[in-house]
């Protein structure tokens, strides 16, 4: 059932990472349950759930345990009324597919995710967001699988029970739970207007993000409602601004570089190692703290 010594760099948008000791692509709950039964017999405690690999920095040494890549990706429209439409989507569904599908049928709620990589499950775990939108705003219900139980148990949660916060959810803390599927609710809108917003957001990313290099997107979290502008409005304090002001644009270590285009991106410009990236993460944290007495917190997951 398990493959062995599979390079994790192939499953990372960063193109970095050593081998997983054991690896499994799971297409449904039944395959996950079968994997957990076998896993318990191996008596190895380490397990990692992988979605799109767009937010994880894998170690150069790899992962000495089992990596389960979630591959369920069905999307189904459940109902239709005058104002809203409900969609049932599995955790492995690509965000890009959901954005396109909802836009095609005139549903508003995911325009902010246009151009984002990754899967629905990963977006839910980290409450992904951009341009003022967040995944929590379209979540009605989540089904997860608690693999700490024997046998594993399905758990249903409503939106409020998911404890969504800035780039976090209950699933960040409950490492033994795997997001399986979600019920999403959308408002009906005008297709042309939805498409205009999507194109605007994609163009913004293409102009301001270093998409020409492998990366994990934003390395550090921003600070919501952290500063007041000249008009007296409360605005978020951007990690990119702090890193830029600390003079770190374009600084490199080995094959990794702090992007001059967007300094909250660390990019793989020349076969970077995880150690190269970790060195730039620590340099950024130290420089920003020494200059501004502000502690940067990683948005990415470092394994």
Automatic annotation (TrEMBL):
FAD-binding PCMH-type domain boundaries: 15-189
Pathway: Cell wall biogenesis; peptidoglycan biosynthesis
One example GO MF annotation: UDP-N-acetylmuramate dehydrogenase activity
Cofactor field: FAD
Active site: 167, 218, 299
Main location: cytoplasm
Localization (cell): Cytoplasm
Entry EC number(s): 1.3.1.98
A Gene Ontology BP annotation from the UniProt entry: cell division
Keyword list, A-Z: Cell cycle, Cell division, Cell shape, Cell wall biogenesis/degradation, Cytoplasm, FAD, Flavoprotein, NADP, Oxidoreductase, Peptidoglycan synthesis
Top-level EC class as recorded in UniProt: oxidoreductase
Swiss-Prot/TrEMBL catalytic activity: UDP-N-acetyl-alpha-D-muramate + NADP(+) = UDP-N-acetyl-3-O-(1-carboxyvinyl)-alpha-D-glucosamine + NADPH + H(+)
GO cellular component terms listed in the entry, alphabetical order: cytosol
Entry keyword Cell wall biogenesis/degradation: yes
InterPro entries documented for this protein: FAD-bd_PCMH, FAD-bd_PCMH-like_sf, FAD-bd_PCMH_sub1, FAD-bd_PCMH_sub2, MurB, MurB_C, MurB_C_sf, Oxid_FAD_bind_N
Similarity comment: family membership: Belongs to the MurB family.
Function comment: Cell wall formation.
NCBIfam families assigned to the protein according to its UniProt record, in alphabetical order: murB, PRK13905.1
HAMAP family: MurB
UniProt protein name: UDP-N-acetylenolpyruvoylglucosamine reductase
Gene: murB
